[in-house]
Amino acid sequence: MAVSRDEIVQKVQEVLVDALGVDDDEVTIQATLMGDLGAESIDFLDIVFRLEKAFGIKIPREELFPAENLMTNSEFIHNGKMTEKGLAELREKMPHTDLSQFEKNPDINKLGDLFTVGAIVNYVNNKLNAA
Amino acid sequence: MRWIWIDKFIEFESGRRAVALKNVTLAEEHLHDHFPGYPVMPESLCIEAMAQTAGILVGEAAKFQEKVILAKIKKAVFFHYIKPGDTLELEASIESFAPEAASTTGKVTCDGRLLAEIDLMFSHIDQNLAGKQFPQENFVFNSRTSVFESLLRDVLSRAGQKSEQP
């Protein structure tokens, strides 16, 4: 059964309000999890667990938040910037994420900004409605 | 000295749920300061008791092969004071379990009356901070230590009786 995007947005917002203790008006589609909503590393797992429960799906951790595996690979990172190869890897691993801003200046310190509320919504939407 | 905030387990279903008892007594010195003339168990220590109940449950689920640390207090709501003479029943259940972490839900009751709801998250630190060394002695329940067996004495003896029945 297809789940509408509005329903997904609403449930994702509820999950983030509960997991991060933020107000629901802070959880905009553009909000970044770390910068705007103050998420720390353990919160990402909490979010994954809560999403699995809310939507009845299985989420391999590296699928929703794959970037940390890329950080340790010297082929993908050079002088604090992500290489072409790294960007290609990101595009493949994170089709649910808008990379256009990041590609202009692929500073790895900005990598955290890729984790937005919208990216989670896209991911869940793909997962639920692709099959 | 180990800082143990539960007295014993009364139920233990591996990987699913566990129930521990904690008797609160005026012999605990901190109750005389918290507060003078009105002793109540600090809520932070009630969270610690739940963290031990749930932490042992999570540790045992991975056969104590992972070092388990409390990573996040997802929820801690207290409905009534906990006072000397109370026998707390701490019930913890595993909600989610992954190679890196686990989340648990928990209820604290006394004579069937709900005192607190405490939901926690634990991290398996070897999976998250690979290569970093931690002193073994920091981890009380990293194997079937005598402390763990003693906490489980009732559960173990009951299991023994059951297996002896024809």
What's the arrangement of secondary structure elements?
The complex is a heterodimer of chains A (131) and B (166).
Chain A: H1 5-20, H2 41-55, H3 61-64, H4 67-71, E1 77-78, E2 81-82, H5 84-93, H6 100-104, H7 117-129
Helix pairs in contact in A: 1-2, 1-7
Chain B: E1 8-13, E2 17-23, H1 30-33, H2 43-61, E3 68-78, E4 87-97, E5 101-110, E6 113-124, H3 125-128, H4 146-151, H5 153-164
Antiparallel strand pairs in B: 1-2, 2-4, 3-6, 4-5, 5-6
Strand order of the largest sheet of chain B: 1-2-4-5-6-3
Instruction: Report helical residue fraction of chain A.
Output: 40-55%
How confident overall, as mean pLDDT of chain B?
Answer: 88
Residue-averaged pLDDT of chain A, rounded?
A: 89
Question: If helices are DSSP runs of H or I spanning 4 or more residues, what is the number of helices of chain A?
Answer: 7
Radius of gyration of chain A: 15 Å
Shape assignment of chain B: globular
User: How widely separated are the two ends of chain B?
Assistant: 42 Å
Shape of chain A: globular
| SSE pattern of chain B | EEHHEEEEHHH
Question: Notable features of this structure?
Answer:
heterodimer; A: 131 residues; mainly alpha; 2 strands; 3% strand; globular; B: alpha+beta; 6-stranded antiparallel sheet
Structure, explained:
The complex is a heterodimer of chains A (131) and B (166). By secondary structure, chain A is mainly alpha-helical. Helices cover 52% and strands 3% of the residues of chain A. In chain A, a hairpin with a 2-residue loop joins strand 1 (77-78) and strand 2 (81-82). In chain A, helix 1 packs across helix 2 and helix 1 (5-20) crosses helix 7. The radius of gyration of chain A is 15 Å and the shape is globular. The N and C termini of chain A lie close together (10 Å). The relative contact order of chain A is 0.18. The mean pLDDT of chain A is 89. In chain B, strands 1-2-4-5-6-3 form a 6-stranded antiparallel sheet. The mean pLDDT of chain B is 88. In chain B, strand 4 and strand 5 form a beta hairpin. The A-B interface holds A 19, 41-43, 45-46, 48-49, 52-53, 61 and B 71-72, 74, 95-96, 98, 100-101, 103, 121, 123, 128.
